[in-house]
Design brief:
Shape: elongated
Number of strands: 22
Strand content: 25-35%
Largest sheet: 6 strands, antiparallel
Order of helices and strands: HHHEEEEEEEEEEEEEEEEEEEEEEH
Structural class: alpha+beta
Oligomer: single chain
Length: about 425
């Protein structure tokens, strides 16, 4: 029995040593992709074994840093992707490309109103055979949802005909900064491929149809990429990595309304109308209402008035009525008729009234009836709504002047005709 026990102990110890060595060198089947089950490998394992043509399946193990240092004498590159299954990421487009120092959010990113973001799809053929392990028919596509919400997810897909598995999916989720729903708008012309081959430098443009918002379909069209051409061929190893990127703009869906009314100033009738009849020299008041119809606070509400010609703004006449100023507060700026004026923040269902006064003038009024349309605009974030009220003016003064001039010209013509006829008659009498 002692002999058997010794043999069993030796066998068990040997198995443990072999298992430990295996686990240190590989993480095959350790985890799986969110959407496609597939083996994941350590950096050491893919360098010491033939994993065939497979994409984005390296997940650095704790032992990889020491192995890499011992093998190359260098530390792991700072820009190396630690978990390639998380191959779709996003970052704000700041106008600066820091290369390997760019910080990509691979799972979730805060979406700020009006900002532009780059969504990148990382493409790495993990085969260590280089050109002898070339992937064929490599294609990518994106899905950017049309709808809005407080959370919007962008999908990126990758496939190759001879890869195992042959299709890969990952995504990145945009989250609202303050709970306001938003949508993502694909920026046309932004799709491009970058690599160290023919797409080095400024990259190579890809068709907009690579994303669904570029072709109005459920998903983007599968689009060929490649290292030396758009031929779908991507050799294995890090030097042949490809990056596919698109750009999206965040647009917050601020819900609010705008309503514009008008009335004659200093008139006994204080009712607000969609339109009024006025004469040259009259003063009219315009009132436009902003109403927050959402369930969220709206900050930085900007109001602007676009007065037409022949309506002259009365300086210092802008008054704002809101919850803090129920009796109105006169603004010390006339920017409402220029670039606009910020009237503050408003909670859900809160509103504000803005009033201005204008004088009806005759700068270039046509004869007869004129319709002067005044547009009021309200902007919240990058969303602008507008409404108008009208002033109808009868320019009879100019009409009377023109008629008087016409009558005078007719009289002058008649006098000249009479003089001409009189002289003809005298000439005939003189030559009888």
């Amino acid at each position: 029995m002692n002999l058997y026990n010794k043999i069993a102990t030796i066998l068990i110890t040997s198995m443990l040593i072999l298992t430990s060595a295996y686990l240190d060198s590989a993480m095959a089947f350790a985890t799986e992709d969110d959407n496609f089950s597939r083996p994941l490998y350590s950096l050491q394992y893919v360098n010491e074994h033939d994993v065939g043509v497979t994409f984005n399946s390296i997940k650095l193990a704790d032992t990889d840093a020491a192995w890499y240092k011992q093998t190359t004498g260098k530390d792991l590159p700072s820009g190396m992707v630690r978990n390639e299954t998380n191959f779709v990421g996003a970052r704000e487009d700041t106008g600066v490309n820091a290369g390997s120092k760019n910080v990509w959010e691979g799972t979730e990113i805060t979406a700020e109103d009006g900002k532009t973001y780059i969504v990148r799809l990382y493409v790495h053929n993990n085969s260590q055979k280089g050109e002898n392990g070339t992937a064929e028919d490599t294609q990518v596509r994106f899905h950017v949802p049309y709808g809005s919400g407080t959370s919007v997810t962008v999908d990126g897909e990758l496939r190759a005909s001879n890869a195992t598995p042959n299709q890969y999916l990952d995504d990145v989720t945009f989250k609202s900064k303050d709970g306001t729903p938003f949508s993502l708008q694909y920026i046309y012309g932004s799709a491009q491929l970058e690599n160290g081959g023919f797409a080095s430098g400024n990259g190579v443009k890809l068709p907009d149809t690579v994303t669904n918002q570029g072709n109005n379909s459920a998903n983007g069209e599968w689009t060929l990429i490649g290292y030396d051409a758009l031929d779908g061929r991507i050799p294995g190893c890090y030097q042949y990595i490809n990056y596919v990127a698109i750009m999206v703009r965040v647009v917050y869906d601020y819900d609010f309304t705008v309503e514009t009314k008008v009335r004659l100033a200093d008139n006994e009738d204080k009712t607000w109308y969609d339109s009024v009849e006025a004469q040259i020299g009259d003063k009219v008041e315009f009132q436009f209402q902003y109403l927050n119809t959402s369930n969220y606070n709206q900050a930085g509400v900007v109001v602007r008035d676009l007065l037409p010609s022949n309506l002259r703004y009365v300086e210092g006449s802008t008054i704002v009525y809101n919850g803090n100023h129920p009796n109105g507060v006169k603004l010390d700026t006339d920017d409402v008729i220029n670039g606009g004026v910020n009237i503050g923040s408003y909670d859900a269902n809160a509103n504000a009234y803005i009033r201005i006064t204008a004088e009806v003038v005759d700068d270039n009024l046509a004869c007869g009836s004129n319709t002067l349309i005044n547009w009021a605009q309200v902007r919240v974030g990058y969303k602008t709504l507008q409404d108008n009220a009208q002033v109808h003016v009868q320019n009879s003064k100019r009409f009377i002047i023109n008629v008087t001039i016409l009558i005078a010209l007719i009289i002058v013509c008649l006098v000249l005709i009479c003089i001409y006829l009189y002289r003809i008659r005298r000439w005939k009498q003189a030559h009888k």
